[in-house]
Fold:
Amino acid sequence: MRNGFDGGVHPPHYKTHTEDVAIRSAREPEVVVIPLVQHLGAPCEATVKKGDVVDVGQVIGDASAFVSAPVHASVSGKVFKVEPRLHPALGKPVPAVIIESDGENRWHDSIEPRDAEDLTPEEIIRTMRTAGLVGLGGAAFPTAVKFSPPKDKPVDTFLLNGAECEPFLTADHRLMLEGTADILTGMRVMMRALGVTTGTICIEDNKPDALAAMEAACKDVPDIKVVSLKTRYPQGSEKQLIKSVLNRDVPPPPGLPMDVGVVVSNVSTAHALSRAFKTGMPLIERVVTVTGPAIAEPANLLVKIGTLFHQLIEECGGFEGNASRLIMGGPMMGIAQFSTDVPVIKGTSGILALGAEDEWDGEATACIKCGRCVDVCPMRLVPILISAYAEREWYEKAEQLYAADCLECGCCSFICPARRPLVQAIRMAKQHIMNQRRERQAAST
Amino acid sequence: MNLWRILTNGVVKENPVFRLLLGLCPLLAVTTALMNGFWMGVAVIFVLTSSNIIVSMLRKVIAPRIRIPCFIVIIATFVTIVQMTMNAYLPDMYEILGIFVPLIVVNCVILARAEAFASKNPVVSAAVDGIGMGLGFTIALMVLGGVREFFGTANLVINGQPLFDAPLFEPALIMIMPPGAFITMGVLLALLNVMVNRGRSGAGA
Amino acid sequence: MTDYKFVVGSSPHLRTSENTPRLMFYVLQALFLVAVASTILFGVRAMAIIGVSVLAALAAEALWQKGLRQPVTVADGSAAITGLLIAFNMPPLVPLWVPALGSAFAVIVVKQFFGGLGHNFMNPAAAGRAFLVSAWPLAMTSGWLTPFDGATSATPLQVLGGSSGSLPEGWQMLMGWRAGCIGETSALVILIGGLYLIYRQVIDWKIPASFIGTVALFAWVFGGTDGWFTGDVLTHVLSGGLLLGAFFMATDYVTSPVTKRGRLIMGLGCGLLTALIRLWGGYPEGVTYAILLMNVATPLIDRMTIPRPFGTRQTKVTG
Amino acid sequence: MEIIAILLGGVLINNLVFAQFLGLCPFVGVSKNVEMATGMSAAVLFVMTMAAGVTALLHSLVLDPYGLTYLETVTFILVISSLVQFVETFLRKASPVLHRSLGIYLPLITTNCAVMGAALISVRQGYGVGLSAVNGFAGALGWSLAIILFAGIRERLELASVPEALKGIPVALVTTGLMAIAFLGFQGLFRFLF
Structure:
């Protein structure tokens, strides 16, 4: 059976707002704010300074650390300032390069198309790095690192993740329809980088048109399979996806998919990789779904990294009604914003505005121990107990119940009939436990 | 003199049952009726006072290392005296109280007073402390016994004479069964907490 | 643009539409069916018992919460459920003050003493009934009537236990045409209500299924008079408070395990204890005590059935 | 058959805690969590079985034949406290591991009236040495069952919002009372055995 992971929930899809709206390019931004941290790993150092003239695709920040990815200018123009600006994922000001566009969209000299056909894996991985590729599904893990598994962990399978299980979001969906060929090209390059011979494209069955498009494109390709997955959140989570498709159990953190011989990548990432070869242009733009009941004209936009949220919201007709929540990403795992003055980053898959009239939340009442959170937890944890201990700051007890293994997928909070902030409490415990483990490690070395 | 204070200390401030929660077993076991509580209380007062007196008299003689076994022997001796006396003069009551008369020997109240008070104080104070603590214990026994008997039989029997001619209402048998003992005691303690807190907040205001 | 004030909370930002009052409402719907059935079977007396019991439960909760200056939560429906279940466990001729006191005990001592909804460790209705059986055994174990005609009669379990009287036919038992507590007899209606709750995903089928299944198995193997494997399964399943207890009391969220394996153990344990008490115990009916005993064991069951997290192959060595 | 009856009676029907009110101080005191309750239970099982056997031996060999039964109370309590002492010393020498896990509970047992109670009951029931030991064991088993179940509930109560006045001992007692109601279900079980 192809839905073999435990638990999970069925939130309403809310995808009809945008699933039939073709991707269009967003208006050229006048100013872009490009944070120097857009990925998991070491932050970049700015390589330009105030007053410098930059071209599209030029490196403006880089780091020497292995787990990192450079950032590039997404417009041509003058560096207005290098200063900390509010970051949509970190929720605090983080150093960013601010560029005033000159409107010319002048490409940098280094940008030239390359043929991926006869490159060695090492060369492909080097390109992933120089193109600043990160996982575009949301976690933004540097792609070059993901595709460099250590020798003792042989990889035999590659999965391309087109599940897009978050409600509202349709960026991957549209890309699979409109950029089918590029996705396939990117996927083949990725497979070559890993040296694997078979790959699988995984799509939830609520996107029949995307399934059909991919299947049609792969009809004569024997080494690539397309599988249809039961629609269930969090189907798109790496561990759950691997369980569903391959029936392999990824060990808990620090376990990674490569521990069971698998690498998973998002369809958008494959698309971006293909573009990086075809045009030579590094990752400077991505598809963002601007949607939600409080957005007048929801759309899928191709957006330059660094474009501010308010420009995109205006472009989609502005807010409609009483917008009460602004979220980067999907409603299940997205990050709430308190300002529209934040830039799109590499990990921004969507901008979601929810209205006050919709009761998205409610007052937490007493836990009635219904056990639904236990039933839906895809990691087989016991959120009811972990959160109770976390609320009382008994972190040792929370740790004994494997709080550190939590995915933070939010299924428990979603399903709770008492509206208790379960995952929120567990997240706190998890942070505390992780900090303690780090301290212990630091003390022992 | 602070003898009065020692006496009231045992009854109110450090009531062995309501404040220190010592001696729960006999307390719950024998309090199916008011008079059971009374006689159990009398037995405890006797053992407690006598053992306190002897322990206090011998406090300079007994070597600290073997004091606990000595205390136990002293207490056990008085318990045996109580057993024999009750068996002779109150055989019915002795039967009702059952093993809880010999079990006075392991009643933590008595050993605790011997250790904490009698072994450090002069004879008169120790005797008064014994009476006070014993009274405190007796009061608790009688309150619990009275409440349970009243609700459990809808009547009260004092000295063999029922207080009312007929049961006042349909008696709740569970009150004189084990669950009734636990729940009543829990509720009494909670009520006491409420009263103490009221008094405290009243004094603070 | 900056005029907008956004609510900032951590994810998820989406919630299911099911909430506690709605779940309680589903249970009330199912129990309402049973109440109607018992009124049809036992007439005005049943209605009076139900009314008094529910009112007492609501009043007890409201007064307690008023007294402690807590928000009054009678509207969540849990007190009404307790009141209904206590009423269903009354013999038809019970004096009306008995269910009233039972409801008050259930709501105040069993539930509110521990902090109210979600904090009690015992099912209030089951504990309330057990309290009444011990406190006023005569009122709780006599006064049985056959429906409609109002003739006094022994219950089927009493008959199985050796009292004089005859067992009703199978269809009579199914329709509730037998002596018993006012809400426990109408087997068919209870079954419909229970299945409705399973369909609504309010209760987990595991508890009623394993509960009833275990009782049936034991009744078949040991319940016969002519040696093993001759027991009268149907009578055992349809009589007493088994169906009512299995669907509405053992499945109480608060007092049953939260893990899947735990719920299975809960049902098995309830069934085992019920059979033990029915076949070899001092009481004709054991459902209430079985549920209470498993309630007592629930924290330990939860503790022992905490699943190994996804991806863990061997038991983690803690340390 | 009698052994089964004693075991069933001691564990379920005449449970030391819920029916006989014995061993309540440690029942309330050492039940904060399941680990502690289990440790205490192991120690009680050990000591109670031995104490019941030894006191029955003393009774049948010395006290009864020489008409010294009035010395029962004094001798029993001395035997029990020295037994606890002996067990402690013996364990420390023989099995340091067991001692480490049971050690802290052993001194608490002297004041556990259940040990003395079980010994007295055995003698009063007229059990011989063997049955007395079985009775002690059964009583201890019932006590252990009670305290471990109780500890599980108390761990859960730690997370409950019990009203201020009831916190701690009052709610513990009410809990015990409700558990005792549940155990009433075993009244009259297997009557034909007794």
